[in-house]
């Protein structure tokens, strides 16, 4: 078998033996491990795209592999491998994960399959010998999710994941990120909108900056009636945070590794928005009692409105906040602030 010598890190020679990845031959003190990351739902233009591009920007150090129900997708760059999976088939999932180190789910599935498919994925990851797993969280803390009926699916999934961690089957973390900052891109100049939304296509929530009469609904704190605070993170920064978490040598250990683009009081967020949209914003404060009354009138089958009302109630209890542990562990990630977001996407044409 032919071997050749190349120039390794820190000027050390590296022996390249074709069947073995060069990383195995690097000096032991090499800080980062090369990792294959499977992203369930990685075809999505939001978190999928964010994570895939953050992993690709490691210049081959990490390799993203998309798990999808479809075998191809014209939107996805041809240099990213797509593995077609059947989330109901253990064999299909195990086969797709055999050479994978880390599995990140960014799935969003309406209905009970959101739980079963992710638990199937978890158990397949365990059998395939994957090292780490993260379920599709990307919202708030568990305490907040307990207040929102539709988010109970995330709690049930997380319970199963944590139980696997406790039994030593896999390492795992959940990643809260607060509200996508991209909600603030709704209504920005058309020339900037695509980048501002980062694939996000939902309607406005709390911040209604579009149109001539912008307004913001502000949950007032239950205890003192003051404006509550919230965390916002740009979708594009979430992939960077997860990539940095993958690089952590310390185990994730079933922890909540929260990330924050910015933690801010509604008053300050509104002031920044006013500065960049160039219009006065009408503030619509709401108390927990008013939201609870409204909730009685929202039909339960209006899932979005029901969820938003319950989320706002959680906001009155300051549950839009959580520990931004990942910011502390990975200070090299410099997420976009709200000022930077508004300046980038609301100014110029
Ligand atoms: N913090 C926030 O403000 C915020 C806002 C919105 C969403 N989120 C969270 O972000 C995460 C991703 O949400 P998203 O809106 O980006 O997701 P999405 O684009 O709606 O879906 C992600 C992927 O899930 C897969 N999928 C969809 N339906 C499926 C089904 N029936 N069976 C199997 N796979 C299915 C699809 O992949 P394939 O078609 O390739 O299989 C899709 O690309 C979720 O956890 C969501 O709760 C957070």
UniProtKB/TrEMBL annotation:
Database matches in CDD domains: PCBER_SDR_a
PANTHER family: ISOFLAVONE REDUCTASE FAMILY PROTEIN (AFU_ORTHOLOGUE AFUA_2G05290), NMRA-LIKE FAMILY PROTEIN
Entry GO MF terms: oxidoreductase activity
InterPro entries according to UniProt: NAD(P)-bd_dom_sf (IPR036291), NmrA-like (IPR008030), NmrA/Isoflavone_reductase-like (IPR051609), PCBER-like (IPR045312)
Entry keyword set: NADP, Oxidoreductase
Domain NmrA-like: 42-341
Keyword NADP: yes
Source organism: Talaromyces stipitatus (strain ATCC 10500 / CBS 375.48 / QM 6759 / NRRL 1006) (Penicillium stipitatum)
Transmembrane segments: none
Name this protein carries in UniProt: Isoflavone reductase family protein
């Amino acid at each position: 078998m032919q071997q050749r010598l190349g120039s390794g890190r820190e000027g050390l020679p590296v022996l390249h033996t074709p069947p073995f990845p060069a990383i195995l031959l690097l000096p032991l003190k090499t800080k980062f491990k090369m990792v294959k990351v499977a992203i369930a739902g990685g075809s999505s233009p939001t978190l999928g795209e964010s994570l895939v591009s953050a992993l690709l920007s490691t210049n081959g150090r990490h390799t993203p592999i998309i798990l999808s129900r479809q075998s191809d997708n014209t939107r996805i760059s041809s240099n990213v491998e797509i593995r077609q999976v059947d989330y109901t088939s253990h064999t299909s999932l195990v086969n797709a994960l055999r050479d994978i180190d880390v599995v990140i789910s960014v799935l969003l599935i309406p209905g009970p399959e959101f739980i079963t498919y992710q638990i199937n994925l978890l158990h397949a990851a365990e059998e395939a010998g994957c090292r780490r797993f993260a379920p599709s969280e990307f919202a708030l803390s568990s305490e907040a999710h307990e207040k929102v009926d539709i988010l109970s699916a995330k709690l049930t999934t997380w319970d199963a994941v944590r139980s696997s961690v406790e039994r030593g089957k896999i390492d795992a973390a959940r990643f809260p990120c607060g509200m996508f900052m991209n909600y603030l891109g709704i209504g920005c100049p058309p020339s900037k909108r695509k980048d501002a939304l980062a694939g996000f296509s939902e309607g406005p929530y709390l911040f209604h900056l579009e149109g001539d009469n912008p307004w913001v609904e502000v949950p007032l704190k239950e205890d003192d009636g003051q404006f509550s605070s919230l965390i916002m993170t740009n979708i594009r920064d979430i992939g960077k945070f997860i990539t940095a978490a993958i690089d952590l040598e310390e185990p994730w250990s079933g922890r909540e590794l929260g990330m924050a683009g910015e933690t801010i009081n509604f008053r300050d967020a509104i002031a920044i928005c006013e500065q960049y949209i160039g219009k006065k914003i009408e503030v619509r404060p709401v108390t927990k009692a008013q939201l609870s009354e409204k909730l009685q009138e929202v039909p339960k089958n209006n899932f979005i409105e029901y969820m938003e009302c319950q989320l706002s109630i959680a906001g009155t209890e300051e549950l839009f906040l959580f520990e931004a542990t990942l910011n502390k562990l990975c200070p090299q990630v410099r997420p976009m602030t709200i000022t930077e977001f508004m300046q980038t996407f609301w100014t110029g044409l």
